[in-house]
């Protein structure tokens, strides 16, 4: 990389004044534009990005794409081109003074909702203007949002979006395998796989993560908050790990910020893996965020905004930049009804997802596509460490409606059946024996696929697994024709069976995968890959007797909650890791919930109950057994928990139950509370 010294004239019109930043991809300088006399920010990239005439022409065209955007909130690109003597591409931009958003929040810690709204109103104006002309940013993150010193009286700053136009060129250029293109912290899942369509919804994903960053002072992904950031660990969270509501994640990361259930609902519509389930564009996201962050005590305009530091823009050459993509139809803003999310478990499903369930990929064990994604050109530098991620897979072989001719059912698995096309057929209601036998390789356990048809007229089934003595399993259920598991049950312990007595499944064909759970729930050590060629597990999916007083799974969000009529009691279990159960009253009449814990749970686990509605809406309570020893507090009670009297409202009240870490237990505590077959009961009474 050629470094320019003070006084050098570059591209015939830019005299170097000083250096702002240098990096592996290029450098940024303050330069005087000789033809106008104005100072500019001159960004110079490595010549490798434009190695032939076609890419040189494309660079010039796409680097100027930002000039198409009619918004003062997009940094102005004055000129762009290729320097003939050096072969290096360059952009001349307006020179800004101020502070990038990442430095701003690092300095201030957290921002108030009104402050976040001021930033987002300007940010979304620029982003929406770009979306309207078919531009997608692709690398939207706090470092690419600049708070420029305002030129108007009474305005604390002007938000500027940086660098529209050349990220796609950078992505596809064959530079060294160690060169990073962007960062996964704000990258949408579809950006990790070659060939996926990148739309304005990809920028919406980043908006959700940026809002969380500003309000909490933390990054949403746990691995991104570590002292040494691990790109592979972040990507695993982005693509596979279950996602919890923003309010719970903020608390678990140690943030003192309090996020509302309304914000949880908004966040759930931005950071959801299915792009079609997100807000369609920045305008829709902003309208909904204004409703979610509405604060009557501190309305917009009454809060004194902090101002950025007065320093020149030093947009590092190591930052990747966005790209122009094929235009798409951008829907106009419409009125948004932001759903309240449950405070625990997967995100609530919006009414506008066309009935498609919002699912998370299985926690740490899954999917060969992850290694394929890492090995493709989009994330070349992380491919070398992909072998460290112990994933097994399903997505490498897309499930098709047509599969190989099935072999007759023999009562036991028939190898090979470690991929969907080779799944063993199992009659509905029959029991099959299998083994987690010879591992696929040093980092992946054996996995077994079975295909079961739920007959017409059946709506509720029973799933039954009889345990192996030395291997903790995960059971994944896929609907035929889908790559994403609709249900996943990771038991978390060896030698423990699982029965889901009432599981709601529509008639049709399903795949069930059985594999080793590789996640360690006690500490950060990696669980070794185990084999067992002596013992067999047993699996069946069949008719359910459907007991009237038992919860019906899945019931982890409002939309699928188990109904409870006044005067009745329901029984439930939190039988797999991170299980969540939601119960809702059958009508809006005044009611009162009672939750009773029947006995002690495994060390480190305690029942947590969160009211959804009423005066204590969203406030979780830990419910300990009646004979447990510990200090009763405003958050810790002994069984039974008696909920507040909830008067009539516009929607039925609910409670959400999950497991929390037991503060009354002696350390060390597990990182994830262990599941068990312990019963609890939920009773609903009229006050």
Radius of gyration: 27 Å
Give the termini separation: 75 Å
The overall pLDDT, averaged over residues, is 78
Number of helices: 11
Largest beta sheet: what is the strand line-up? 1-2-3-4-6-5
User: What would the principal axes of the Cα set say about the shape?
Assistant: globular
> Would you report the number of β strands?
31
List keywords for this structure.
single chain; 687 residues; alpha+beta; Phosphorylase Kinase, domain 1; Jelly Rolls; six-stranded mixed beta sheet; 11 helices; 31 strands; 16% helix; 24% strand
Short description:
This protein is an alpha+beta fold and 687 residues long. Among the domains are: 1-95, Phosphorylase Kinase, domain 1, CATH 3.30.200.20; 391-543, Jelly Rolls, CATH 2.60.120.380; 558-685, Jelly Rolls. The longest helix is centred in the first third of the chain and has 20 residues, at 113-132.
